[in-house]
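Extended Data, panel c. Modelled sequence:
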Amino acid sequence: MNTQTLSSIEIYENHLKLTLDWLLSSIDNGKGGSSAHFSPLLGWSKPYPETSGYIIPTLIESSSFLNNPKYELAAKNIGNWLLEIQSDDGSWHGGLHPNSNLKGSVFNTGQILKGMIALYKNTNISDYLIAANNGADWLSKKVDDKGLWPNGDYRASQTPSYYTHVAWPILEVSSNTGSILQEEAAKRFLDNALSRKLLNGAIGGWGFNDSGSAFTHTIAYTIRGFQESSRLIGDYEKYAKPMEQILDFFIRKAELSNGMLAGEFNEDLSESAKYVCLTGNAQLAICILIMEKQNQDLRLVNAAAKLLDFIGSVQSKNHFFKGIKGGIAGSYPIWGRYMFMRYPNWAAKYYCDGLIRLILRLKKEI
């Protein structure tokens, strides 16, 4: 038995528990959901329905992984809150809650579907599946013939490529409902987004804006949306295999930088920032581990570990403020452009997800 590997696993588990404690604090302060972020200057924000929704699967998995029911209970409480604030048309609004603008948000609704499906699978309570089905139907009916969502985008003039992260949860729902409408709508967008793949492996339009650099956060959203959609469709070659080219680029970057990956890249793959987007680090580590599951290679595991190790090295383990202890800043240094001076709940979520995947993979080598 490899003592060094065991020691690494114990360290990762300690980071996981610390981060989960921070997530529970974000829920305690979230008035139903999870506070979007903690600011050292302003304290806890209002709850964020979008990220509260996709924190649910993290809490359910953590409850099973650590054999601790408190995470599952927190997941159910968030889920019930989301049921209460769902619009009659099946959508959820954008932004924080409460919000004066109740217009349905395509991206936010998509992310909440992940939580609804996770709760349905965990509890077999039909209310969650009904809510997910209504949300997926709302999304599917809004996809046009080109495979785009003409309304509800964040900043771009046409649907950004990272909306593969909406196609994925629609397919999660359709795999439980058998809806052809939902499945075909998701595939239409995936085909459109895949047509944007450039010769260097990048996906055009993978940032918040039409042009310019993209955070590793939305880059990883784009990649993982393709990977998970391929899993649900049952065809690795269709959408996941084409992502290996760009992941190979980030694997090399992670190795060379020892996990201190630039937070933004242009579509020509040149770096456009010096700070690290810690959320993107965690998300790319997950994408690399998904790829490694198909192509087992310890070099890929090592690259993912370096990305997660860097996050752990800058995580605050002892701090007077609960909003900082165990949290993951948006950027390193914290004054970087991504989530400037804030600790977002989604950074903690993806770090937990990455740690669990890495620990499970490392245990195979013991």
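The CA atoms of residues 126 and 335 lie 44 Å apart. This feature is highlighted in the accompanying rendering.
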